[in-house]
Amino acid sequence: MAEITQLNNDAFVTMAMCEECKKPFGITVDKVSNGQYKFVWSFKIDADKAHREGYDATHVRGDVTEDARYPGCPHCGSKQWYICTNCSTIVCYHGQSYVTCPKCGTSGEITKLEEIDIKGGSY
Ligand SMILES: [Zn+2]
Ligand SMILES: [Zn+2]
């Protein structure tokens, strides 16, 4: 984790879920500027621990990009992702046009959003 020592104070962790194995993982999100966020790191986590540590306490809205070092989903390795419009969970993505959220079961077509809502907790 030495590579992410340059995170600023507004960095936080958001919860995501792997589409393939339905296991949760955490994503470290760094704030670039107001309304601009960047995924910088990901790691396996268990859902109970995430809930205890308050990874759903922060709520931001903005445009998200991925850092060049972002390793992708720690379970399947995909660097692509989408966000469920129903439960706001970030889910790794494998290029299909029709998806089913592994967390809440909502399915629908992928649409491109300019801004997304992200929930997370302090890093
Ligand atoms: Zn995955
Ligand atoms: Zn969902």
Q: How would you portray this structure in words?
A:
- The structure is a single chain.
- The chain has 123 residues and is mainly beta.
- It has one domain.
- It has 1 helix and 9 strands.
- The protein has one helix spanning 47-52, and strands at residues 12-17, 24-33, 36-44, 58-66, 81-83, 90-92, 98-100, 107-109, 116-122.
- The protein has a 5-stranded mixed barrel. Strands 7-8 form a two-stranded antiparallel ribbon.
- The longest helix has 6 residues, at 47-52.
- The structure holds zinc ion (2 copies).
- One zinc ion binds next to loops.
Summarize this, please?
It is built from 1 helix and 9 strands, in the order βββαββββββ.
Name its key features.
123 residues; mainly beta; 5-stranded mixed beta barrel; two-stranded antiparallel sheet; globular; binds zinc ion
Number of β-strand runs: 9
Order of helices and strands: EEEHEEEEEE
Q: What's the rounded overall pLDDT mean?
A: 86
Shape: globular
Ligand species? zinc ion
Distance between the termini: 13 Å
Largest sheet: 5 strands, mixed, barrel
Which structural class do the helices and strands define? mainly beta
Q: Specify Rg, calculated over alpha carbons.
A: 13 Å
Which helices and strands occur, and which strands form pairs?
Layout (H helix, E strand, L loop, with lengths): L11 E6 L6 E10 L2 E9 L2 H6 L5 E9 L14 E3 L6 E3 L5 E3 L6 E3 L6 E7 L1
This protein binds zinc ion (ZN) (2 copies).
